[in-house]
């Protein structure tokens, strides 16, 4: 159900408030350039600093603007299982096609706790769930054997894998089989992950170059690895530039430089990029031809 490039879309802010018109325009920019889905309220969408009301409104705006043209996979994760259930139920009511749920952070649950967390949400809300494994932010890794158990749970559809380990990625694919969708959670691993059987990427850099990321995924899904490899290596420096500082500060700055959003504003504890980092980012965009 979910494949190709799904941009983890930023949440534009203006003077401290969510910029609804800016969000709608950015969604249109993505869809006009061939993305295969849209993911609001992920890490790149600054979900950690959105109020519950803002979080729900971003999901509602996204569903309304997309109007069924591509799937909407709403971020609904929490380290509080009851809260994750509530956010997931809202996403379903709003019309999302699926949800992206980060593994519980800070609590550091055991593998059994992780399994029971996802199983409980899946039992409570009948909507496709994409698990988000990002040990660098959660302080725990979901092991491939746990994924094998989770793959058997009704409506757990796949994973956004951001451990950075190809060993882990290949083990998940081997153990879970072809019906379990594995998406890259690292822009720079899109090509190798898809070459071993992954289905696509939930992506940061697609915010600024949606057409090229869409083309890359289309080539790889069609098995055109030679042409895809050339595009991948062209994109790679730009992918790396999105992480000069903590995501999403660089991608928001890039979008503002390109005139796609009105402000690069992020919320504390994130801060605007340093002048040195901004200069590096601008050069990467100029070298790519995005400016």
Q: What key phrases describe this protein's structure?
A:
291 residues; alpha/beta; TIM Barrel; 7-stranded parallel sheet; 9 strands; globular
Give a structural overview:
The chain has 291 residues and is of the alpha/beta class. The protein has a single domain (4-222), classed as TIM Barrel, CATH 3.20.20. The chain contains twelve helices and nine strands. The protein has helices at 20-32, 52-66, 81-94, 111-124, 135-138, 144-150, 166-176, 190-195, 210-221, 225-241, 249-257, 275-288, and strands spanning 4-7, 13-14, 17-18, 73-75, 98-102, 129-133, 156-161, 181-184, 200-203. The strands form two sheets. A seven-stranded parallel β-sheet has the order 1-9-8-7-6-5-4. The longest helix is centred in the last third of the chain and has 17 residues, at 225-241. The protein is globular and about 45 Å long. It starts with a strand and ends with a helix.
